[in-house]
Write a structure and sequence with these properties.
The complex is a heterodimer of chains A (52) and B (792).
Chain A: H1 4-27, H2 37-51
Chain B: E1 18-22, E2 25-29, H1 32-43, H2 48-52, H3 66-71, H4 75-81, E3 82-84, E4 89-96, H5 101-112, E5 117-123, E6 128-133, H6 140-149, E7 153-156, H7 161-200, H8 204-225, H9 227-239, H10 245-265, H11 272-294, E8 307-312, E9 315-320, E10 329-332, E11 341-344, E12 348-352, H12 354-357, E13 363-366, E14 370-371, E15 376-377, E16 382-388, H13 391-407, H14 415-440, H15 446-457, H16 460-479, E17 482-484, H17 489-493, E18 498-502, H18 503-507, E19 508-519, H19 526-537, H20 543-546, E20 557-562, E21 566-571, E22 574-579, H21 581-586, H22 593-596, E23 602-607, E24 612-622, H23 626-635, E25 639-643, H24 648-654, E26 662-664, H25 669-678, E27 684-688, H26 694-699, E28 702-706, H27 711-715, E29 719-721, H28 728-762, H29 768-786
Parallel strand pairs in B: 18-25, 18-27, 25-26, 27-28, 28-29
Antiparallel strand pairs in B: 1-2, 3-4, 4-6, 4-7, 5-6, 8-9, 8-10, 10-16, 11-14, 11-16, 12-13, 12-15, 17-29, 19-24, 20-21, 21-22, 22-23, 23-24
The chains are: A mainly alpha (52), B alpha+beta (792).
Pfam families (chain B): ATPase-cat_bd, E1-E2_ATPase, HMA, Hydrolase
Main location (chain B): membrane
Protein name (chain B): Cu2+-exporting ATPase
């Protein structure tokens, strides 16, 4: 079980990296339009369907 | 469902037949405008918009903003609004009519297919678009036209300071939420491992590792993400008025503080998971609430950019309002809002001063009189000398009317705040008494017993009870096209006893339609006569004139507005008059007035210089759903009142007296408000739309503005009926009642949980970790219970 002393802190470092990426994304305006982005992928999908 | 418009979802007037075949299906429309838009959309291969949009309705923007964009022909202004690089120009547009992401998709697709557009990005939440185009291939004027073809109107937008602050705050809120969410998950993961360890046994070194981890992740959550609560609590202490912020901060800091002590002394239990979860859920609730509220601010048009005709150095020029300086001579059309204070240079006009005085009847103004900003020039084209400019006049107007009414607005007790007030004191007193008692008894564990008491009484579930339910309800309402803009709305709606309706524009459609046409001539067809009338009215901005604008006009010369009478002009060499009975009398045209005039209908006459040619009756038609909605509301036990500025005869010709409990006619705006104030009980909902309803809207317990209301009415109401469908009102009342019930259940459960465990905790029977699990479970119960409100 000694591996826990290594693995848990490493997992912690990943979490910190994830938070930093999140902050970077927010500052880069990626969360400006919460209504929109979630659905964008659906529109793009249907469009390619229609063309085929 | 075939009797609603395919594009905008409005009911189609009976007898109207406007249809096209789109995507191999027959589609019906309520007007030619909608038909043109739908044909354009489908023609451009963008019909997916209709499949993807959230609701089957669209807000068709009626305002034509091309005059605004014509202003940008001026170089100075162009530089102000357009960011220019060598081959590409960029502008920010604020777009009205965006209701969901399908709209954003439609706009992006349509515009990027236009020649010369380099990129377009639409933000559906803020209704803002960033448009980049190649100035050699197209102009912003052309692009704004193509936006109008698909039913949206755009205004040039310059982000103000307020927007920047708002945006920065929103970003901070999202980061806080993210930090709290991730931190919470880590702290919980460690907590679950520790609970498992408590049951199965675990090595001390492992336990210590997990404590470290949860401490490290909880600390930024508590110190950074929880900051807004502490700020609120400090403000509460300063104002000596307690809101939920105080018990919330107390709960967070105490559970975190005692955990840190436990962590540091390596004894006792840590509650990092509870503290972080608490912060996350509360932040989430607040974030969703502000999100719902900011949706309301979409319609912030730049009034600075209204075009005005100004005479300078002998020539006429169109400039934006904010470029006017005192001493300028401005030319105003009839129906135009006077943008500045100024002195009348023309001989005579009537001015609607209802926005200032509440007086609905237009006031006569003569040469040399002072005209005030925000009043409306009713009659004819005038010239005025500008004396006062700027937003000062306008801002003063708005605040003057409403401050009065708002200051007397009855308040409905908000349950949570009452609870909070006493709760804080009770918790603190109990905890310190417990500590005092056990230390007096010489109990070594006295401190931990006190911590147990604090954790048990931690008002997590209690403070989540109301906001979670309100947030869920607000979102469910939004789906129905009912936008809640103030916090108290749902709770006050639940206590509705009386609904006061305005007539025009609220129960009726707020626009005239032709109900009767009598052709007295022998040689002209009805179509021809209507096209004459349309031509005569083509220059007028009077509401009556709008009725005829949809009819293709004939050619006309020597058009003239006759104040308070009508219009005159020359068609095919004939001088024609169109207006009221007084106009006919003035021209010595004799006829039997009784024969044509009907109460409640507006009768207008068309005549040449000798005799009457045609009689048109206009009437404001009732909304189709009005009757059924009123009877549903009555069944729900609501007192119904009508307050209208119209005369009794004209009101009763459309709305029968017995549909209502109170029927007040001839009300001035101020009287409407006074009448509402005199009602014996609270719980009055006012539904209105116009400028003359604004004082009443501001003064009622709860107010709803119709979606097509004037901006001022929307600004001062607590909720907006975006869909413009009255059916939403009974639905919303029912929902609000259900929401109140759920809040009560939640409060009962949370308070009951706290009250039952409290004596046990005081007696020292509950180990802190049991208290922590209980706290988490009770919060979860509250959240799950509130989620039942998702379905309206």
């Amino acid at each position: 079980m000694e591996s826990l002393f290594l693995l848990i802190p490493i997992a912690g470092i990943f979490v910190v990296i994830a938070i930093l990426i999140f902050i970077w994304a927010v500052k880069g305006d990626q969360f400006d339009d919460l209504n929109r982005e979630g659905e964008r992928i659906l529109f793009d999908d249907d469009e390619t369907d229609m063309k085929q | 469902m075939s009797n609603v418009c395919f594009h905008c979802g409005d009911p189609i007037p009976t007898g109207l037949d406007i249809a096209s075949t789109l995507q191999d299906q027959r589609r019906e429309f309520c007007c030619y405008g909608c038909q043109a838009i739908a044909e354009h959309i489908c023609g451009a291969d963008l019909s997916m918009y209709y499949e993807r949009r959230d609701t089957n309705t669209a807000k068709r923007s009626s305002s034509d903003t091309s005059a605004l964009f014509d202003l940008l022909n001026d170089d100075d202004l162009y530089n102000e609004y357009v960011y220019q690089e060598a081959q590409q120009h960029t502008i920010q547009l604020s777009i009205s009519g965006i209701t969901c992401s399908a709209c954003a998709w439609l706009i992006e697709r349509h515009l990027s297919n236009q020649c010369g557009v380099i990129s377009i990005h639409v933000n559906a939440s803020d209704a803002l678009a960033t448009l980049v185009w190649d100035p050699n291939k197209t102009t912003v004027q052309v692009l704004s036209q193509s936006l109008q073809q698909i039913g949206y109107s755009a205004h040039p937008h310059r982000p103000g300071e307020q927007d920047q602050i708002h945006k920065a705050e929103r970003k901070k809120a999202i980061i806080r939420l993210g930090v709290a969410g991730v931190g919470m998950m880590q702290a919980m993961m460690s907590a679950i491992a520790m609970y498992a360890g408590d049951m199965q046994g675990m090595e001390d070194s492992h336990r210590q590792l997990l404590r470290w981890i949860s401490f490290l992740f909880a600390t930024p959550v508590v110190l950074y993400a929880g900051l807004p609560f502490y700020k609120g609590a400090l403000r509460d202490l300063k104002n000596r008025h307690f809101t939920m912020d105080l018990p919330v901060s107390l709960g967070i800091l105490l559970s975190y503080g005692s955990s840190v002590i436990a962590f540091y002394t390596e004894s006792g239990h840590v509650y990092f998971d509870s503290a972080t979860m608490f912060i996350f859920f509360l932040l989430l609730g607040r974030f969703l609430e502000t999100l719902a509220r900011s949706n309301q601010n979409k319609a912030r048009h730049n009034t600075d950019l209204e075009p005005v005709i100004v005479k300078r150095e002998g020539s006429e020029k169109v400039i934006p309002v904010h470029k006017l300086t005192s001493g300028d001579i401005a030319k105003l059309e009839s129906g135009q809002t006077i943008p500045v204070d100024g002195i009348l240079l023309s001989d005579f006009t009537n001015v609607d001063e209802s926005s200032l005085t509440g007086e609905y009847q237009p006031v006569a103004k003569h040469k040399g009189d002072l005209l005030r900003a925000q009043t409306i020039n009713v009659d004819q084209q005038i010239e005025l000398e500008v004396t006062n400019i700027g937003q000062n006049t306008q801002a003063a107007t708005i605040s003057r009317i409403t401050e009065r009414a708002l200051s007397e607005k009855p308040r409905v007790a908000v349950i949570a705040d009452n609870v909070a007030h006493y709760f804080v004191l009770a918790v603190l007193i109990t905890a310190s008494l417990t500590y005092a008692f056990w230390s007096f008894m010489g109990e070594a564990q006295a401190y931990w017993i006190m911590v147990s008491v604090l954790v048990v009484t931690c008002p997590c579930a209690l403070s989540l009870a109301t906001p979670v339910a309100l947030t869920t309800m607000t979102n469910a309402f939004k789906q129905q096209g009912f936008l809640v803009t103030r916090g108290h709305v749902i709770e006050s709606l639940a206590q509705t006893k009386q609904i006061v309706f305005d007539k025009t524009g609220t129960l009726t459609q707020g626009k005239f339609s032709i109900v009767k046409f009598v052709n007295l001539s022998e040689c002209y067809s009805e179509e021809l006569l209507l096209s004459w009338i349309s031509a005569l009215e083509s220059q007028s901005k009077h509401p009556i004139a709008q009725t005829f604008h949809s009819i293709p006009p004939s050619k006309v010369d020597h058009l003239q507005n006759l104040p308070s009478l009508g219009v005159t002009g020359e068609i095919d060499g004939k001088t024609l008059f169109f207006g009221n009975a007084a106009l006919m009398l003035q021209n010595d045209i004799s006829f039997e007035q009784q024969q044509y005039a009907e109460p409640g209908k507006l009768t207008l006459y068309l005549a040449d210089s000798k005799k009457l040619i045609a009689v048109v009756s206009l009437c404001d038609a009732l909304r189709p759903e009005a009757e059924s909605v009123l009877s549903t509301l009555r069944d729900q036990g609501v007192r119904l009142s009508l307050l209208t500025g119209d005369s009794a005869t004209s009101a009763m010709s459309i709305l029968p007296r017995d549909w209502f409990d109170d029927y007040e006619t001839d009300c001035l705006p101020d009287q409407k408000w006074q009448w509402i104030k005199q009602q014996p009980h609270k719980g009055i909902v006012m539904v209105g739309d116009g400028l003359n309803d604004v004082p009443a809207l501001a003064g009622a317990t709860t107010s709803m503005a119709m979606g097509a209301s004037s901006d001022l009415a929307k600004l001062h109401s607590d909720a907006v009926l975006l869909s413009d469908h009255l059916e939403t009102i009974p639905l919303v009342l029912k929902g609000a009642k259900r929401c109140r019930k759920i809040i009560k259940q939640n409060l009962f459960w949370a308070a009951g949980y706290n009250a039952t465990l409290l004596p046990l905790a005081i007696a020292g029977l509950i180990p802190p970790w049991v208290a922590a699990i209980g706290m988490a479970l009770s919060s979860l119960m509250v959240v799950v219970n509130a989620s039942r409100l998702n379905k309206l």
